[in-house]
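#lab-general

N.A. 3:47 PM
ok so I finally got the sequence cleaned up, no stray characters, all 265 residues accounted for. can someone with queue access submit it? mine expired

B.Y. 3:52 PM
send it over

N.A. 3:53 PM
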Amino acid sequence: MSIPLFQVDAFTDQAFAGNPAAVCLLSSWPDSHWLHLVAREMNLSETAFVVRTKEGFDLRWFTPNVEVDLCGHATLASAHVLWHEGMVKSHAAISFSTRSGILKAMRNDDEIHLDFPLKAEEPTDPPLGLLEALGVSARYVGKNQFDYVVEVESETALRGIMPDFRRLATIQARGVIVTSRSADSRFDFVSRFFAPACGVDEDPVTGSAHCCLGDFWKKRLSKDKFLAYQASPRGGIVRVIVKGNRVLLGGKAVIISKGELLGKE
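B.Y. 4:20 PM
back already:
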C-alpha cells in the first residue's frame, strides 16, 4: 500500500529556503523501527509522521538518528499539509497529540501559528569543551530541558561560527542554541542551532529553540513579541509571542514535492 509523502519548506514563503521537513501521512502506527528507517531514508533534519484520531491527530518526529520530544518546523509543515490536502477545514484549528502534550496549529491571516510550551532556561557553567567546540567566547550560557543556550556579543560573531561538530557531539544535550541581538532593525534577535548528537549538524530553522529564545529575550528586552531570524545558510523567519507558559510560533510554509512512499509498513 502506498503512503502519502510530502516535502515542505517551513518558516519561509519561498521554495528552497527555511527548514525542509518530510511529512508522512499514515493510517495507523507501524513499529518504531520502520519510522526510524523512513527518517533515515529521508535524511532531513526531521520527518513527521501523522495519524488521524477521533480527537485530532497523533504526531511524532524523527531525525535520521533519534526520535525527538518537540519539533516546530515539522509541526508547521504537517499542519500546512493537512489544510492543503483538505483533511482539515481551511480555517479550523488542528490539535496534535505529541510527546510534549497537546500542540495546536491555527491559521492567522497568511501565517500559521503554533501553540507550544515555553522551555525556559537557567544560567549554568558551560560544560567542558562547549565553547571550544563553538570557537567563541560567551556573554552568557544557560540550559533548559533540551539544549544549551549561548549568547555571543554580536550577529557578526554568530554568523562566523564554524563548529567542531565531532567535539560538539560529545556535549550532553539535544543541541546548542547560539543567539545575539540582530544587526538588522527588522529583527529583534538572531540565532543558530547545532545538534550533531542527533544527526543534525546545523538545523536551518528550529521552532522548538524559539520556545526557549522567546523567554530568554523577554527577560532582556522587556517585551513579549518578537520577529526572529535564524541565520543558517538557508535562513528563516519566526514570529514569537510569549504568553505565560506558552509560546506562539508564527511562520509560513511551501510544499516542494508530493509523492508516495512505496516501502512496506
